[in-house]
Amino acid sequence: MAESHPTPGQTIGPFYGYALPYARGHELVPPAYPGAIRLSGSVFDGAGVPVPDALLEIRQPGGDGTVAAVPGSLRRDGRFTGWGRAATDAAGQYAFTTVEPGPVAAGAAPFFSVVVFARGLLDRLFTRVYLPEHRESVRADRLFADLEPERLATLFAERTGPAELRFDIRLQGERETVFLRFPAHGVTG
């Protein structure tokens, strides 16, 4: 009888670093693109330990607030696609090269939509990253009306340089990032 070996589907997973990252997936635009910025940070677990095997996806509008309608978001040919994927490294750090999002509606605060996949999560987590200068607009958003100021603060990136934003994600514990639940993604039953 032939020797059998477990496949990923038969062992404990998930395996986000296997077959999901792709070349330049973290580049929504090339680094030399006009107005390119770096959005980076770390992902931490409930004990404050960096998560070395998380996968993040972002979706965003362009600088003018227009949601890109570029077919083939996996292609990296110099056009802004509005979507990217980055894995964390051994130190739990991730980075995207992109542009600052513009507001999609008058008076709305611009944001990056973020999806987090990581070990120990039964399902993905959704959050947003807001630019620090839009704090008042976000406070006025009815989506966050009942949120305490300390919790709301977990949704803002910090400027660390002229073209650099830092946003750390804390999956649990002290200063846990605010995560969103969408009705279509809720648990039923």
Keywords:
189 residues; mainly beta; Protocatechuate 3,4-Dioxygenase, subunit A; five-stranded mixed sheet; four-stranded antiparallel sheet; 9 strands; 5% helix; 24% strand; globular
Structure description:
The protein is mainly β. The protein has two helices and nine strands. Helices cover 5% and strands 24% of the residues. A hairpin with a 7-residue loop joins strand 5 and strand 6. The radius of gyration is 18 Å and the shape is globular. The mean pLDDT is 86. Keywords: Dioxygenase, Oxidoreductase. Its EC number is 1.13.11.3. One of its GO terms (molecular function) is protocatechuate 3,4-dioxygenase activity. This is Protocatechuate 3,4-dioxygenase subunit alpha.
What's the structural domain tally?
Answer: 1
Q: Got a strand count?
A: 9
Query: In sequence order, what are the helices and strands, one letter per element?
Result: EEEEEEHHEEE
Return Rg in Å.
18 Å
Distance between the termini: 45 Å
* Number of contiguous helices: 2
Rounded mean pLDDT is 86
Strand content: 15-25%
Output the CATH class name: Mainly Beta
The main sheet comes to: 5 strands, mixed
Helix share bin: under 10%
CATH superfamily heading: Aromatic compound dioxygenase
The secondary structure category is: mainly beta
CATH topology: Protocatechuate 3,4-Dioxygenase, subunit A
Which ranges are low-confidence, i.e. pLDDT below 50, for 5 or more consecutive residues?
none
What is the global morphology?
Answer: globular
**CATH architecture term:** Sandwich
InterPro entries: Intradiol_dOase_C, Intradiol_dOase_core, Intradiol_RC_Dioxygenase, Protocat_dOase_a
Protein name: Protocatechuate 3,4-dioxygenase subunit alpha
Domain Intradiol ring-cleavage dioxygenases: 36-105
Keywords: Dioxygenase, Oxidoreductase
